[in-house]
Specification:
Elements lengths: L2 E6 H9 L3 E4 L9 H12 L7 E7 L7 E2 L16 E7 L1 H12 L13 E6 L4 E6 L1 H8 L3 H15 L15 H9 L6 H16 L1 E7 L5 H11 L8 H9 L6 H7 L12 H10 L6 H4 L10 H27 L5 E4 L2 E4 L7 H13 L4 H17 L6 H17 L11 H10 L5 H12 L17 E4 L3 H4 L9 E4 L1 H7 L4 H11 L4 H9 L5 H8 L3 H21 L2
Parallel strand pairs: 2-5, 3-8, 9-11
Antiparallel strand pairs: 1-8, 2-4, 3-5, 6-7, 9-10, 11-12
Helix pairs in contact: 4-5, 8-9, 11-13, 11-14, 13-14, 14-15, 14-16, 17-24, 23-24
Length: 562
């Protein structure tokens, strides 16, 4: 039966200190910043409601999840004597961690990002709490002189208009002994000041929080559903974290598996959920949430089931790396500078998931060249048809089925031919960093573009994407995909804001006045003779249309001759 009761703040925190209230291993780390903690503490000292806490009771002998102590709780403080259960925090980790850290003041950094101990000071006269990096800890950890410490105190004192060395921290209110020790050790405190502190102490000591506790017998399904409900507001758990909760009871620790692969290349562009999606596809399941949470039967924890899961995980991880490598090396999806940003030219990172499964199928069938050609056709047709702009999970499932069927039955070729009129119209209005733009730059890279000035191969890793007809003269219309190309950074610097008619003269001169040589260089950028004539006339619209026709014609040849 679900228990709901008002729990005294320090009864709750004392259970935290003893290790009776813990965090389930799958919960994310503490992420709150000082401002959020300040708001929480100010709510407490004013008696405001801070929300309820949701706990899950579990037997100590048969723990539901791997437990993790609240930040700042020391192992030697753990005291579970006389208890046969612990409670996991399902909702409220950030609040409980903030409260424990503030009142018990452990000598540890607040978070991995902050690096230093934080303390929370209270100005009783205005009932205001603020958090600061502890100057003492900064000096100690950085091993610098007291000059820095004094300087920090000067900065803090100037910022808050009070000497913080004489302000109490919120930690004095954790119990009567600590509070009285502070009062007795500060004989200079006025009676009115002490009375105010006692008023705050009494209010904090009486503060209660509504705590909802799910009983030990709560089913895994209900726990997962609870996570999904309580995380619709605030910081949501993703499906991977829900899967961690789902599979831990049968001996599968996804966080441990994740930590072993944190340096894998595919994690540069995808998250760990992609692994579970590939696993679902390998099991012939659509990679949606409900299937990701049912990759194995949680009622069956046999060694064989666990071994199959681990093998499937390793397979998915390996082929995600293989798929990303193919996207970068074979499909031209390098990182390149567009404007002021370095952008990875992957049109749809979601396509890497089904691609990984297709490449697994190819290796299983003997790495046949014909099968790679089929996957290449699928890849480019899908990119330029923009099929992965939405409903990627459904698309990936159906695409894998179609390609698997084509592998098994070569005569049953699916219709992968894009509507080229649609492709051109979309590219004419597409943003330069859109999926279509990235696909266009990929094709340019694979076409081995030559430098417009020197006629030599461009070093792709050092080039830039920029306008042919300059935006400084033609405005936003110049941002069209077909007015962009790959330029050597030195050539781009020399081109600057020159009109094409002027820059073409420079190019022709650098090509030794050899018109045919210049035409070959331009063709490597999909600039046809018709497009060249528009350039000579500085005709932006004519150039965009002509280059678009040239590119679509070449693309049509690539995607219809297979």
């Amino acid at each position: 039966m679900i228990e709901v009761r008002q729990v005294n703040l320090f009864e709750l925190l004392d259970d935290v200190r003893k290790g009776l209230i813990v965090i389930p291993d799958f919960q994310r780390d503490f992420i709150w910043e000082l401002k959020q903690i300040e708001e929480l503490l100010n709510s407490v000292i004013n008696g405001y409601f801070i929300g309820s806490i949701l706990l899950l009771e579990s037997s100590l002998d048969n723990q539901r999840f791997a437990p993790r102590l609240i930040r700042g709780v020391q192992q030697d403080q753990i005291n579970r004597h006389g208890h046969n259960t612990i409670k996991y925090i399902l909702d409220g980790q950030q609040r409980i961690t903030s409260l424990y850290y503030s009142f018990f003041e452990p000598n540890v950094a607040l978070s991995d990002d902050m690096n230093f101990v934080c303390k929370f000071y209270i100005r009783p006269d205005v009932l205001d709490i603020f958090g600061l990096l502890d100057p003492e800890d900064i000096v100690r950890r950085l091993r610098v002189g007291r000059e820095l410490k004094d300087k920090l105190f000067e900065i803090y004192n100037s910022q808050y208009g009070v000497d913080i060395k004489y302000l109490p921290t919120i930690g004095i209110f954790k119990n009567k002994e600590t509070f009285e020790a502070y009062i007795n050790s500060n004989s200079s405190l006025t009676k009115s000041y002490v009375d105010k502190l006692r008023e705050i102490f009494d209010k904090i000591q009486r503060y209660t929080i509504p705590v909802i506790t799910l009983p030990t017998g709560t089913s895994d399904e209900n726990i997962v559903n609870t996570f999904e409900r309580i995380n619709r507001t605030g910081t949501p758990l993703n499906i991977f974290e829900l899967a961690v909760a789902r599979y831990y009871p049968i001996g599968i620790n996804l966080n441990t598996l994740k930590n072993r692969i944190k340096d894998r290349p595919f994690l540069d562009v995808l998250d760990e959920v992609s692994i579970l999606k590939v696993m679902a596809l390998l099991k012939d399941l659509e990679p949606k949430s409900q299937n990701i949470l049912r990759l194995v039967d949680v009622q069956n924890s046999s060694p064989q089931v666990l071994a199959e899961f681990n093998n499937l995980w390793e397979c998915a991880v390996g082929y995600l790396d293989v798929a990303l490598d193919r996207v970068r090396r074979v499909y031209g999806a390098v990182k390149i500078k567009i404007g002021k940003k370095n952008i990875e030219l992957i049109p749809y990172t979601t396509m890497i998931v089904p691609l990984a499964v297709m490449l697994y199928e190819i290796e299983k069938r003997g790495n046949l060249a014909a099968l790679y050609n089929k996957v290449d056709l699928w890849y480019w047709s899908t990119v330029f048809s923009q099929k992965y702009s939405h409903a990627a999970d459904t698309k990936s499932f159906s695409d894998v089925k179609v390609i698997q069927n084509w592998f098994a039955n070569p005569q049953k070729k699916p219709d992968l031919t894009p509507n080229f009129d649609y492709v051109k119209s979309e590219m004419l209005k597409g943003a330069r960093s859109s999926a279509l733009g990235k696909g266009f730059y990929n094709q340019l890279i694979l076409n081995n573009p030559m430098d417009l000035l020197t006629g030599q191969p461009i070093t792709i890793s050092e080039c830039q994407v920029d306008h042919i007809l300059p935006s400084s003269r033609f405005g936003r219309a110049a941002d069209n995909i077909f007015n962009l190309t790959l330029l050597d950074k030195n050539t781009n610097q020399k081109k600057k804001d020159k009109l094409p008619s002027d820059f073409l003269n420079d190019c022709l001169l650098s090509h030794g006045n050899d018109t045919n040589s210049l035409i070959r260089t331009l063709e490597s950028h999909y600039i046809s003779a018709k497009a060249l004539e528009s350039l000579k006339q500085n005709n932006l619209d004519g150039f965009i249309q002509a280059r678009g026709e040239s590119f679509i014609g070449i693309l049509k040849g690539k995607l219809t001759d297979n």
